[in-house]
Design brief:
This protein is an all-alpha fold. The protein has one domain. The radius of gyration is 13 Å and the shape is elongated.
């Protein structure tokens, strides 16, 4: 199972992620949303008894990519 936490995805921004979670409410909201979606995806992928449809899982993955892109823009532009 791949690790998709934000710090794992952007290790070069680890300290900036921590700082922005504290001082930027928009970034914090995006971060929390990203981590929640990521945890849900991991839950579905790791536990066969917790079924969901392929369509739902794909929608969650698309949402994770969308949030990751938004967070990446924040990290590189601020």
């Amino acid at each position: 199972m791949e690790n998709h936490t934000l710090v794992h995805e952007f290790p070069e921004f680890e300290s900036k992620i921590s700082e922005m979670k504290q001082r930027d409410s928009v970034f914090r909201s995006l971060y929390v949303n990203y981590e929640e979606v990521n945890a849900l995806i991991q839950h579905y992928e790791e536990n066969e008894e917790n079924h969901t449809t392929d369509e739902h899982l794909n929608e969650l993955r698309k949402k994770r990519v969308f949030l990751k892109d938004q967070l990446s823009q924040y990290l590189t532009n601020k």
